[in-house]
């Protein structure tokens, strides 16, 4: 059956969340406190989180065990809300046990939970319905290709991928280049928009920069992501491409990360950024997965509040 989340469900729901996180990025897990905090607010979404007017978390139970969970958001219809979010509903994330020969009922529970989610979204009478997989862990967003069972649930419910696809890469800091002096080029460390910025300069102009974020884990959330950093931004002047500048920027960032105690560095690229993909993999990055962003409910009949009619019974709050 499907019921509203209760505090007693927190440990089992966190286990489900961590199972999905582990399939995307190695060495990262979240605490119960992190999951509970995410159900109340998402401080990292400082632009979009204030637009949320209602949050609901539902779980599916079988024989007293939580086997699936979903977190739903509803955004206000006011003009202060961004157009794509205005008067919308979203399955912010959905986790469930994958179907297995010894647990064939796991997918049944996921389908029941999906129906409960769609029923709640229909009652909200929102203009648009989205879905995502934005778990409260770094590097986990969109719908990763490592979650085929979640993709099957979304597609069966009528969601379609309408956005872009991003490539998630990871490197061991130990495998990244080491900084070496370059004649005529200086490197400056400053505060950036997405972390600490390293800028390569020559003849008074910037040739490129890289920003690394070493504050992925909020201390009060007890996130186990020690040693993980993220490339917040990487830009190379087109005239400097192919000169090895990107390796030198990575080398200076890596030197800083070693001082910080970071041992892994993540990167995110658009699927079409094939040249940058080659540059990063050539510098020691490996591809973890690809994640599809932007899922939208496409009902069979017109009307934003309609939910697919799937046989079965469910109970939701």
Describe the protein.
The chain has 317 residues and is of the alpha+beta class. The chain folds into two domains: 162 residues, Gcn5-related N-acetyltransferase (GNAT) (Aminopeptidase); 124 residues, Aminopeptidase. Helix content is 24%, strand content 31%. The strands form two sheets. Strands 6-14-8-13-12-11-10-9 form an eight-stranded mixed β-sheet. The chain has a seven-stranded mixed β-sheet with strand order 1-2-3-4-5-15-7.
Total count of domains = 2
Question: What is the CATH architecture descriptor of the largest domain?
Answer: 3-Layer(aba) Sandwich
Question: Helices and strands: which structural class?
Answer: alpha+beta
Q: How many DSSP helices?
A: 6
Region (Disordered): 298-317
Pfam families: Acetyltransf_1
Protein name: GNAT family N-acetyltransferase
Organism: Streptomyces composti
Offer a few descriptive terms.
317 residues, alpha+beta, Aminopeptidase, 2 domains, seven-stranded mixed beta sheet, 6 helices, 31% strand, elongated
Give a quick precis of the structure.
With 317 residues, the chain is α+β, with helices and mostly antiparallel strands.
Indicate the topology:
Blueprint: E1 2-4, H1 10-22, H2 32-40, E2 52-62, E3 65-75, E4 88-96, H3 106-124, E5 128-131, E6 143-144, H4 148-157, E7 159-161, E8 165-172, E9 186-191, E10 196-202, E11 205-213, E12 228-236, H5 245-260, E13 264-270, H6 274-282, E14 286-292, E15 295-297
Parallel strand pairs: 4-5, 12-13
Antiparallel strand pairs: 1-2, 2-3, 3-4, 5-15, 6-14, 7-15, 8-13, 8-14, 9-10, 10-11, 11-12
Helix pairs in contact: 3-4
């Amino acid at each position: 059956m499907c019921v509203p989340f209760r505090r007693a469900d927190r440990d089992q729901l966190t286990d489900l969340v961590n199972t999905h996180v582990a399939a995307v990025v190695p060495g990262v897990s979240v605490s119960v406190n992190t999951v509970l905090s995410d159900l109340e607010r998402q401080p990292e979404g400082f632009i979009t989180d204030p637009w949320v007017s209602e949050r609901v978390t539902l779980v599916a139970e079988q024989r007293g065990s939580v086997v699936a969970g979903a977190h739903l958001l509803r955004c206000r219809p006011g003009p202060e809300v961004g157009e794509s979010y205005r008067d919308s509903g979203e399955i912010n994330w959905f986790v469930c046990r994958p179907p297995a020969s010894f647990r064939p009922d796991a997918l049944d529970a996921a389908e029941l939970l999906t129906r409960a989610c769609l029923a709640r979204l229909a009652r909200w009478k929102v203009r648009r319905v989205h879905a995502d997989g934005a778990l409260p862990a770094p590097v986990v967003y969109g719908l990763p290709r490592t979650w085929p069972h979640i993709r099957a649930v979304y597609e069966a419910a009528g969601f379609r991928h309408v956005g872009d696809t991003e490539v998630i890469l990871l490197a061991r800091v130990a495998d990244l280049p080491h900084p070496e002096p370059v004649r005529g080029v200086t490197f400056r460390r400053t505060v950036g928009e997405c972390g600490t910025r390293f800028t390569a300069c020559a003849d008074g102009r910037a040739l490129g920069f890289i920003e690394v974020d070493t504050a992925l884990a909020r201390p009060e959330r007890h996130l186990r992501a020690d040693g993980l950093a993220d490339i917040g931004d990487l830009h190379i002047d087109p005239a400097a491409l192919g000169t090895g500048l990107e390796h030198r920027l990575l080398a200076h960032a890596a030197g800083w990360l070693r001082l910080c105690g970071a041992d892994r560095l993540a990167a995110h690229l658009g699927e079409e950024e094939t040249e940058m993909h080659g540059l990063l993999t050539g510098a020691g990055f490996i591809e973890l997965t690809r994640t599809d962003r932007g899922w939208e409910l496409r009902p069979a009949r017109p009307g934003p509040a309609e939910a697919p009619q799937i046989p079965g019974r469910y109970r939701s709050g």
